[in-house]
Amino acid sequence: EYFHIRCGAHIINLIVKDGMNDMNDTISKIRDNVKYVRGSPKRLHAFKECVKAMGLDEKKGLNYDVPTRWNSTFIMLRDALLFKDIFQHLASCDPSYTSLPSQDEWSHGSDLCQFLK
Fold it and tell me: Quick one: signal sequence residues (predicted)?
């Protein structure tokens, strides 16, 4: 008698999330970087000091993504890509930091970010 009609935004969200499954390794690697920096006040402070030293906008932060919102993945990627050089500097200064994405992973993240934009 009744049939269910999904919201258009929900359908778009499902399509985009399904398409992002192919890039899951890259997204996970970048997410791990964000988690590492934000996982400790000391690491976050060191990260912000590097941002300030390199003359980037220190008010801009790193954001986690939320599994149910593809646009939060876009925001996470966009912000992480902005601080790509900081992550590379962090890798040379912090021996416990071991999850730096490769150049290919950064490139794939950039491509995905442009697509999601």
Answer: none
What's the angle, vertex CA 72, arms to CA 71 and CA 73, rounded to 5?
90
7 in a structural domain: no
Between CA 87 and CA 102 the distance in angstroms is 11
Environment class of residue 61 by beta-carbon count within 10 Å: exposed (0-12), middle (13-18) or buried (19+)?
A: middle
- Residues 14-54 pLDDT 10s: 787 777 777 888 889 999 999 999 999 999 988 888 888 88
Contact 34, 80 (CB under 8 A): yes
Q: How far is CA 97 from CA 47, 52, 75, in A?
A: 12, 20, 23
Q: What is the pLDDT of residue 78?
A: 94
d(CA 91, CA 69): 29
Q: Is residue 4 one of the residues assigned to a domain?
A: no
Residue 17 domain-assigned (yes or no):
no
